[in-house]
Design brief:
Number of domains: 1
Distance between the termini: 30 Å
Structural class: alpha/beta
Shape: globular
Radius of gyration: 18 Å
Order of helices and strands: EHHEEHEHEHHHHE
Helix content: 25-40%
Length: 239
C-alpha cells in the first residue's frame, strides 16, 4: 500500500483528551450556554446536557484539553525493527504542547516527514492545532496545514487508508486490530475512563500507559496493512 514510504520517516501518534472541567455544572454560565448551542442537535428527551457533556466534553477542542500525546518511532536494526515510545503529559496543557512542538521542530519539520494516526485527520491533528492556537502557541510547520489542498498534505491516517474511498462509516482501531489478528494488551481502562482517571484518580501515568499502547497498536496495524511483519514484543520500548 505504502511501500515507497520509509517507515523511519513516519511519526505515529495518539492523544488523550478530557473536558476542561470535570462536570457540566462547573462551567461558567456563558460556556454552558455555548456548549448547549453547539450540542443542541444531540439532546434527546432522555439525555440532558450534563450527560452529553460527560460523553463529549473532551471531544470538542473548544470545551476540552489534551492531557497526553504519545508518539512512536520505528527504527531498523541488524535483526529487524525496533519501536520506541515517547510521551508528553502534564497537568498544564501548554507545557506538553510546547514539548511536543519542540519535537516536531527538531525532528519532524521537513517536507519529507510524515505524521500518522488513526482517525487523526478528523480528530488528533485538528485538535492539536486548535489547542495550540488557544494556548497562544505557533503551529509547527508539520501541522501548519490550514488552507492546503488534500494532495499537498502527506500525513497518513490508517482509518482513511482502510476506507478505500468509502466514507460511510467509522472503523475503530480496536476493530481493525481484531480483524488483522494483531495482539493487543488487555487494558484496565478505556477511552471512556480517561476523564475519570484524570479528575478523580489524578493518575496521568496510567493515562500515558494507555495512550502508548494505542500507538503500539497503530504501528502494528500500519505494518500489517502493508503486508509486513509485526515488531516483536521484545523490541517495543516504552518511555
Amino acid at each position: 500500500m505504502l511501500k515507497k514510504t520509509p517507515i523511519e520517516k513516519i511519526l505515529f501518534l495518539d492523544i488523550e483528551t478530557v473536558p476542561l472541567v470535570y462536570k457540566f455544572e462547573s462551567l461558567d454560565a456563558k460556556t454552558r450556554e455555548l456548549f448547549e448551542s453547539k450540542t443542541r442537535f444531540l439532546q434527546k428527551e432522555d439525555k440532558a446536557f450534563n450527560q452529553i457533556y460527560d460523553e463529549r466534553g473532551g471531544i470538542y477542542a473548544e470545551f476540552g484539553k489534551i492531557v497526553c500525546i504519545s508518539v512512536g518511532f520505528v527504527t531498523s536494526t541488524p535483526t529487524g525493527r525496533q519501536m520506541r515510545m515517547k510521551s508528553f503529559y502534564h497537568e498544564d496543557e501548554e507545557t506538553l504542547l510546547r514539548q511536543f512542538s519542540e519535537l516536531l521542530g527538531t525532528h519532524y519539520n521537513s517536507s519529507t516527514s510524515i505524521l500518522c494516526g488513526h482517525n487523526a485527520k478528523e480528530f488528533d491533528f485538528p485538535y492539536i492545532c486548535r489547542r495550540m492556537l488557544i494556548n497562544g502557541l505557533e503551529l509547527p510547520e508539520a501541522l501548519n496545514i490550514a488552507g492546503k489542498k488534500p494532495w499537498e498534505i502527506s500525513h497518513l491516517d490508517t482509518m482513511e487508508l482502510w476506507k478505500f474511498g468509502d466514507f460511510k462509516a467509522y472503523t475503530s482501531l480496536a476493530l481493525l486490530c481484531h480483524v488483522f489478528q494483531i495482539p493487543t494488551p488487555k487494558d484496565d481502562i478505556s477511552g471512556a475512563d480517561v476523564a475519570r482517571v484524570y479528575y478523580e484518580e489524578k493518575d496521568l501515568e496510567r493515562i500515558k500507559v494507555y495512550c502508548e499502547k494505542d500507538v503500539v497498536a497503530l504501528i502494528q496495524l500500519f505494518l500489517k496493512m502493508n503486508g509486513e511483519h509485526l515488531v516483536d514484543e521484545g523490541e517495543i520500548h516504552f518511555s
